[in-house]
Design a protein that fits this description.
With 277 residues, the chain is an alpha/beta fold. 33% of the residues lie in helices and 21% in strands. α2 (62-77) links the parallel β3 (36-41) and β4 (78-88). Bound molecules: S-adenosylmethionine (SAM).
Amino acid sequence: MKTVETFGKPGAKNLVIEADNIDALNYLNKEYSGKIDVITIDPPYNTDISYIGYKDSNYSEGWGKFMGDRLTLAKGLLSPTGVMFINIDENELVCLLNICYSLFGISNVNVLVWPKVNPRFDQNRVEKPIFNIRSTHEFIVLCYNDKPNTHFGNTIDGKPMESIVAGYGTTSSAKDEICELLGDRKCFSTPKPVALVREMIRVASKKNSIILDFFAGSGTAGHATMALNKEDGGNRRFILVTNNESDICRKVTIPRLKVAIEREDLDSGFVFMTMLD
Ligand SMILES: C[S@@+](CC[C@H](N)C(=O)[O-])C[C@H]1O[C@@H](n2cnc3c(N)ncnc32)[C@H](O)[C@@H]1O
């Protein structure tokens, strides 16, 4: 592991790790085993319509093995009442649920629904004639280490989170956010909205929790953690892991976090490390 740069507030303990996440998870298990309160991940969905063409053929033993190996390591990082939110669409929902049931037990797994689009428009805001049932939602699989002893806080409007997680942005609004920060709506095709990730962190974290996203993409989980700290005076830390596929880490994740810190006056910073050099 090599430090590439530190940015922002001196002494900030947030980490961005450029690595294959299997290597990063093995590394993190040495220091953070049982210490992470919230994991939010948004893995490749194993569909051929995604920006990066994830198909089973990209993984020597299939998507299920790829995810199972990583989720097993991730479970070891969770604190006794820690939780993991996993975004997924219907393509691999069943495969993912089977992995989660076997790792956490069926009574420690919930499925939430995230309405991801306005049904009349595509994600680039182009109006579409509708001839068929439009797919307008995705899922968030929620895994608890110990559901009976895990107590969630309320969302921003003072209410408990509901299983339909509506009103916290869409795929389009997430792209607007990236465009606003980096001036390019197309630099990354599958971001999640800051508000959605911020609410998951808000309800499931304490003010000093460590938040991990090991499929960090454009870095939304880091942005959301810092924004939530600014809002409620919290001292949460984030650890983000992303590979550098299509230059994402160095051309999108790092610049996005820097711009967010400066423009939104987030009084934060991070250490950028690599396992790839
Ligand atoms: C769907 S995107 C995550 C988007 C993120 N939620 C956001 O809001 O920007 C999945 C990301 O995981 C990264 N990724 C895929 N396989 C990986 C691996 N084995 N190790 C680390 N990162 C990986 C890809 O580069 C991609 O950017």
